[in-house]
Amino acid sequence: MDKTESIRQNPPSPPGSPASSLLPDTRNLGVWLRIMLGVNALTMVAALIKAHHLMDWPWVFIQFAAFVEPLLLTALPILATGRDALRRLPPRAAQGAVLLGVMMLTVMLFDFWRFFGMTEARADELARASLLAAAGTGVMLLYFELRARAFPKAVAEARLQALNARIRPHFLFNSLNAVLGTIRRDPKRAETALEELADLIRVLMRDARELTPLSDEIALTRQYLDLEKLRLGERLQVEWHIADVPGETRVPPLMLQPLVENAVYHGVEPLADPGPVRIAFSRDDDAIVIAIVNDATPQAAHSSGNRMALANVRERLSLHFDLEARLDAGFETGRYVVRIRLPVTVPH
């Protein structure tokens, strides 16, 4: 399995292609939503400037929207289709190509409408419309560029919050105690446990701006559960159900382990009897669904530690995948379920 870490919000660009840091991912639903909201907001402002009276503004906006919406709904699929080609260009060249493409598309739409007698726009009006379309596109490109430059800082801040929430002294203390208790009766197992603990701490301290293969996240969680098995023994019962999911798909690091740790902490530790933890993966079209199921009381489910862990994982999913990923948690048929849905993102 390729262990190369890859992407932030978008799949990786070919080497030497910095355009990916400036251009939005036009295959992302959240990006489409932001572009449509932003362009329509700019259209409202333009209509307000154009209208002679406030009462005329709705009619002027409708006239502008009749031109803007077809242009927008034509440009977005074209940009999504040509996204890989644009990402091979230098950043400013890619932005220039987008601006030029929008202006050309504006001219083509005017010609289409003129051919069917839907407009009688003069050449100066066509030029003005093309420049306005380019200006609106430039504003949106600037917005996404500023957002892309701010993204690593936002991830770093979320990472610090995740570290503060997830490096639990009780976990490290209990894991070391479990290892110490194993040294005399099984030295080789104790040595393996120390190596697993070192790997876990190394991942905890790793940079979180890059996504990691799902297979690595599963392996890390298995290592964590091996450590907990030393401490909890037969009380910890883990069921893994991994269906047809690609192990190379990229996920935020430490997405799974903190949630499984929560399941152990709230669903196994307080119980005298064995506590089952079920971790299931399934494929749903172009998405992966992960479900973590455990026994827990409502008080444990609403504890501050549990809420903080869920909030941190939810925030990192949002930072990396925008609206295409979600995390839900709650009780289903008497058991506590955390369910993650995220897109399949495989590097090319």
Structure, explained:
With 348 residues, this protein is an alpha+beta fold. The protein has 2 domains: 18-150, no CATH class; 167-343, Histidine kinase-like ATPase, C-terminal domain (Heat Shock Protein 90). The chain has helices at 29-50, 57-81, 83-87, 91-115, 123-166, 169-183, 187-204, 214-232, 257-267, 298-301, 304-321; strands spanning 212-213, 236-242, 250-251, 275-284, 287-294, 326-332, 335-343. The chain has a 5-stranded mixed β-sheet, covered by helices on one side. A two-stranded antiparallel ribbon has the order 1-3. β4 and β5 form a beta hairpin. The chain is elongated. The relative contact order is 0.11.
What would a concise description of this structure say?
By secondary structure, this protein is of the alpha+beta class. The chain contains 11 helices and 7 strands.
